[in-house]
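Sample entry copied in:
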Amino acid sequence: MDSIQIHGGVALQGKVRIQGSKNAALPILAGTLLTKETSYIRNCPKISDVYGMINLLKSLGCHVSWEESGIRVNAKDICKGEMQGEAITGMRSSLCLLGALLGRCGEVVMEYPGGCVIGERPIDLHLSALSKMGVVFTEEQGFIRAAAKQLNGAHIKLPMASVGATENIILAAVTAQGDTLLEGAAREPEVAALCRFLNCCGAVIEGIGSSRLRVKGNRTLHGGDFTVPADRIVAGTYLFAAVATGGSVLLEEAPYSQMEAVLHVAERMGAQCIAAREGVYVQAAKRPGAIPCLRTAPYPGFPTDLQSMALVALTTAKGQCRIEETIFENRFRVVEPLRKMGADIQICDAHSVIVKGVERLHGKAVEAKELRGGAALVLAGLMAEGESVVSDCKYIYRGYENICKDLRELGARIVSV
């Protein structure tokens, strides 16, 4: 089932439960390598990236089983950190195994990691930070070899708040000799979730949620029982689906405390968003209103992963909006397929576009180019008049457990084909 077929024009109504967070689950699964005991990770989303991570863990010698409410991992038999195969080059998150394997084995051999085509995403920050902890890197025929006779705590200042680099430093620092002080750390909730998991396994990480983290080194970790938080990006996707279609939905278990910037933008577009114990209630206007400018930023700013969804909702808004992308340089791959559907979008430069609202979009056959842009095209299909088909949906399934089923629960006419 590589395509999604949508008959648009239905205002979404009802409730849908938000899955566990992809961006939290993957580094937490990597963190299970740091203990020889069993860890139980609950609420992991059943998505292709998680299956890929499980295959990687198994290839390293881990015992992994998927049970009814989570994943059980035991890494007692790992003795070397050699990662090869398609899962590495196709999954950017495999890079977070670097810090964990250095902490466990002291040496890693891996292919250059890949993922979605949304920018260069260089790994220089990872390499330079880990080098300060005693890691020596060499490149051999397309492979990266990282080795450290002894990981040492260090004072590291990141020049930019990189989520991946922050996670790798934390994973390496837990078992290093001495403390690590990390300044300029990413503040994303997924980083905080990783820290909380490691602390429940016996690590000591201070300053969780801030840009200044202190990791106490030389810790022996035990197994942990941890629940992955709900996915704020999936919640935001369905929120903008409601805004785009003029719907009324309950996003069950949506992590509203992590979504302040997103809720603020939705409210500026005319929606009413109410946080409650059950999740987030969204009552959208019949037609969204434009906002003058939308600018992505590291957390707690508006997330780059939801920029494409907001752009889609703004294609039929009253007025025009300038969207500025500050994180990745290739986040506007959805513009051409949206223009094909009737959107009025002007590309100003690689980092900004101007969206002028039109009365409606028209159903077309379009192709997903990356994860979040693919999901955004599904939203465009929900809005459009007539039938749309989104092809190459393997990207979408990397982050959404069952986007068609979720949207059908809200009344959408959508199927995988």
Q: What stands out?
A: The first strand starts at residue 4 and ends at 7. Residues 23 and 175 are 23 Å apart (CA to CA). Confidence is low (pLDDT under 50) at residues 115-120.
